[in-house]
Amino acid sequence: MTFVYPALDHETVDMGAGPLVRARTLAVYRLNETKNLWVRLPSSQVDTTAHTVTASAFGVGVFSLVGQQDTSLETTFAYPVPFRAKRGDTTVTFGDLSQRATIRIFNASGALVQTLEEEDGDGELEWDVKDSEGDPLPSGVYFYLIESSADKKRGKLVIIR
Length: 161
What we know:
Elements: E1 2-4, E2 12-13, E3 21-22, E4 27-32, E5 37-40, E6 45-47, E7 52-54, E8 63-66, E9 77-79, E10 83-84, E11 92-95, E12 101-107, E13 112-118, E14 125-127, E15 140-147, E16 152-160
Parallel strand pairs: 10-16
Antiparallel strand pairs: 1-7, 2-3, 4-5, 4-8, 6-7, 9-11, 11-14, 12-13, 12-15, 15-16
């Protein structure tokens, strides 16, 4: 079976009511009526170019297309890490963010040095590797905390000047 989903772009699905859904998290589920439980069909495959989800199922039943809200930070990443100014790096990019996210950057002592906000909904944010005063951060290890309305992710950055 094949489901066609309404896509805003190749990453985001607008189901018409409620929050947006990440396309790559879509899967076909079948209702196990005996246990009153939705079970994911392991054969579910998403084609974000064609905006379809396909799956194989035996017999008839009740099926649904289900995906995760665009609040997940599971696949969020930062690059380049390490940041190397001599290589020509000018920014650190945080990618695969949720549509709304707050990024807090801390130095090795745990002091907050910068707060960034993802607000334009494109899931990407570039940071100029400067503190909240606009000064370039020195070489060292830094930690980040990314928060969306329903998720958190922590990570480490290295800056080499």
